[in-house]
Design goal:
Length: 462
């Protein structure tokens, strides 16, 4: 007879341990669905609060309205086509209310990438890799996604979705269709495919070699994987060409400067370090390591709730290339961990993946970084409303500094050059004021044309 059978105290202790494990197993699936729901709510907030107009988005929206169609430049034409499709479709169906079009523009550039991440989570909803992907999302999107107009958000989400489909043990025809569709959108999406494309290509080759459980006798699966491989190779080559012959050499140099975000973006550095340790433990640690690592990692992630660590919105632009490298590194670790799991399974060694409450660091890392993004998105909408009020109640050309905007978080939300375009986008009537960008005086900046007469101006924004 063992100790627990003889000793009531020990028996009670073991019973409590079992009960906690049962509770954890019940809570954890609900937590997965909660994560997907919360991210969709964040996508809705970004749409309603017009985060698509932040930064270069004001100029993009003005250009789309002027052209009554798409605004492209060659190196990212596919990403721009997909994210601009909602607003351009509405235009061509006769929608003329600028407030509706502005929200459709925000839906395209802000919500679509978040929806693609949610689709990746859905694919992995029964896999231990779900929580490492959540940690990866927290490091990448929540550190660089506030600038919704950036095509990198779209490209990174597609990479995550493609990887998720290929990492699951088996996938059906809907999965294959999703893989082909997502892969086809990667060429001409963003230059970071120069290193992310080869990683996805390696993952395809692994699948083709049968490293994961899959019936490769199915010609449809083989065809889909070869199409995906062709898309990744094409995306890699196209991205390398645009890096060697850049559209904007200054912009490329800024993206390649990794020193600035690493020394100035504390949220990115701390969240990246915590996510790396967490994913390494999830992929290679034993059950005990994964369980006990959850405590310090969860506590350390709570540091990010401190306002001093919050990213200012404009830092998203500077972190775009670093988060792309982070996505590459973390995804590569997960791929290696998945290969290790499969090889151990062939030898009859099956580990419990992410036992008990060891998934908490991932959800905490997500939650503490969603807080500043949510607060700043709400702050942006408030600043935007005040910006519109100044435009509508004034006339002529004004410097940013001579308006009340100088007191209203301008340092957080203003962009160096797009104020005049934002003025035209938001004006309720022709002849409203034009607010110049910071530190510029009349004559320093070209005044954009009024919106075409086909569009209806809106009196209220929110």
């Amino acid at each position: 007879m063992d100790v627990a059978a003889r000793n009531p105290v020990a028996r009670s202790f073991e019973g409590n341990i079992r009960q906690r494990r049962v509770t954890a197993k019940r809570v954890e699936p609900a937590a997965r669905w909660t994560v997907m729901g919360v991210i969709l709510l964040a996508a809705a907030q970004a749409t309603l609060d017009l985060r698509g107009l932040y930064g270069d988005g004001a100029y993009y929206f003005w250009s789309e309205l002027q052209a009554h169609g798409f605004y492209f430049y060659p190196s990212r034409v596919v990403a721009q086509f997909v994210t601009q499709l909602p607003v351009v479709t509405a235009m061509n169906f006769g929608v003329s209310d600028v407030s509706v079009l502005a929200r459709l523009q925000s839906f395209g550039v802000a919500a679509i990438p978040m929806i693609m991440w949610v689709l990746a989570f859905y694919v992995l909803r029964r896999s231990w890799m779900f929580w490492p992907f959540v940690a990866m999302f927290a490091v990448t999107f929540l550190n660089s996604g506030f600038l919704s107009i950036g095509e990198y958000n779209f490209a990174y989400a597609l990479v995550a979705l493609c990887a998720a489909i290929m990492l699951v043990g088996t996938f059906g025809r809907w999965g294959l269709l999703g893989l082909v569709a997502a892969s086809a959108m990667l060429p001409f999406s963003y230059e970071s495919l120069a290193h992310l494309g080869p990683l996805l290509s390696v993952l395809v080759l692994i699948r083709l070699r049968g490293a994961f459980k899959s019936d490769l006798r199915d010609r449809l699966k083989i065809t889909a994987l070869f199409i995906a491989l062709a898309m990744y190779v094409a995306a890699t080559i196209i991205s390398v060409v645009w890096i060697v012959f850049p559209r904007d050499a200054t912009n490329l140099a800024g993206a390649a400067d990794f020193s600035w975000p690493l020394f100035n973006d504390r949220q990115l550095v701390l969240s990246g370090a915590l996510a790396t340790v967490y994913i390494l433990a999830a992929c290679f640690g034993g059950p005990r390591i994964r369980r006990w690592a959850a405590i310090p990692l969860g506590l350390l992630s709570l540091i990010l709730i401190d306002h001093a660590f919050w990213d200012e919105p404009w830092k998203a632009f500077g972190s775009r290339a670093v988060t792309g490298v982070a996505l590459f590194v973390l995804l590569a670790v997960i791929v290696i961990g998945r290969l290790r799991e499969e090889r151990r399974a062939r030898r009859g060694v099956v580990d419990e993946r992410l036992p008990s409450w060891s998934w908490l660091p991932a959800i905490l890392l997500l939650a503490v970084q969603l807080v500043p993004m949510t607060v700043h998105t709400a702050g942006w909408s408030g600043w935007l409303s005040q910006f519109k009020y100044v435009v509508d109640t004034s006339s002529g050309t004004h410097t940013n500094e001579e308006t009340v905007l100088r007191f209203s978080n301008t340092s957080l939300y203003v962009w160096p050059w797009t104020n005049p375009f934002l003025s035209v986008d938001l004006a309720s009537h022709n002849g409203a004021a034009i607010i110049l960008s910071p530190n510029l005086k009349p004559g320093d900046q070209q005044i954009p044309a009024e919106l075409p007469a086909r569009y209806e101006k809106f009196a209220t924004l929110f």
